[in-house]
Design goal:
Number of helices: 0
Radius of gyration: 15 Å
Order of helices and strands: EEEEEEEEE
Helix content: under 10%
Number of strands: 9
CATH class: Mainly Beta
Strand content: 35-45%
Mean pLDDT: 85
Structural class: mainly beta
Strand order of the largest sheet: 2-7-4-5
Largest sheet: 4 strands, antiparallel
Shape: globular
CATH superfamily: Cupredoxins -  blue copper proteins
């Protein structure tokens, strides 16, 4: 993640945060489940959804694919790859307290092409 092995990234407790996941592997498909940490999907492979969508099941992220997530963390959480026998954590998010004004996550403009169908088999596991 960002050139580090199993990094720890700080996020503000209770603040909406956008996570952009990009599979930079050239031959590996990652299986992740944003629902494990309460994230909503904002965009899939560059296509913005009309509204954030909660999906409590694993999704595949192939080489060069992207997924934008919206998470409002209450506690620490892990981003894990799930395709093996045991989940493999590849980034740890630590929540921190911050006093003062909090910014909201910036929304993406909608594309002129149709919204991705996250409910069709093949988009998810």
């Amino acid at each position: 993640m960002n050139g580090e092995s199993n990094p720890e990234i700080q996020v503000v407790r209770g603040q909406a945060t956008r996570l952009r996941l990009i599979n930079a592997a050239n031959a590996r498909i990652f299986e992740i489940n944003p629902g494990r940490f309460g994230a909503k999907i904002l965009a899939y492979d560059g296509q913005a959804l009309s509204k954030p969508k909660y999906r409590p099941m694993p999704m595949l992220l192939g080489p060069a694919q992207r997924m934008d997530l919206l998470v409002t963390p209450d506690d620490d959480f892990l981003l894990e790859e799930l395709s093996g026998d045991d989940p493999y954590p590849f980034v740890r998010f630590r929540t921190v307290e911050v006093n003062g004004t909090q910014q909201s996550a910036v929304s993406l403009p909608l594309n002129a092409i149709p919204e991705p169908d996250l409910d069709t088999p093949g988009w998810c596991v």
